[in-house]
Design goal:
mainly alpha, two-stranded antiparallel sheet, 52% helix, elongated, binds zinc ion
């Protein structure tokens, strides 16, 4: 369901979705997700995505399993002989997006800059901690500021 690029875009946007009603309505319309979010609210999927991007609990993984492999949906699994595994055929957009997240979980990150506006992202490297150079620089400035707030006075006194 959708290309990998489209799945990636959807899951990143979902994780970063703001809480305002207008933002959520716009998102549902853009991806035509009204039917898919009829049973479980959009908030459920946002929470699940954020949890998976951060550090998934056992219960998040259980919810992911229920989403990707609902009861009686074995036809979603096929044989991918060359890649030595099961292939997965999503039946719905959100399933495709969450499946993309599963397959790229090593690169799914939460930005280390606490003030990042869109903190959930896929990095190019496994050990990346920031979504952008801007966030890296901002986090460094914040660390320096904290250091000064904590130790600045001592430092100034020690220089006298
Ligand atoms: Zn960031």
């Amino acid at each position: 369901m959708g290309s990998e690029a489209a799945q990636k875009r959807l899951i990143v946007e979902l994780a970063n979705l703001r809480a305002e009603k207008s933002a959520r309505e716009e998102f549902l319309e853009k991806y035509n997700l009204d039917a898919e979010t009829a049973d479980l609210s959009l908030a459920f999927y946002v929470d699940l995505a954020q949890s998976l991007f951060t550090r998934p609990s056992a219960s998040s993984l259980k919810r992911l399993r229920q989403l990707l492999l609902p009861a009686g949906a074995l036809d979603m699994l096929g044989i991918d002989w060359r890649r030595r595994r099961f292939s997965y055929q999503a039946h719905a957009r959100l399933q495709g997006a969450f499946h993309y997240l599963l397959e790229n979980s090593d690169l799914a990150k939460r930005c280390g800059n606490a003030a990042c506006a869109k903190p959930y992202f896929f990095s190019k490297r496994r050990n990346a901690r920031y979504c952008s150079d801007e966030c890296f620089a901002a986090a460094q400035r914040a660390t320096k500021r904290e250091w000064w707030e904590e130790h600045g006075e001592e430092w100034r006194q020690s220089r006298r």
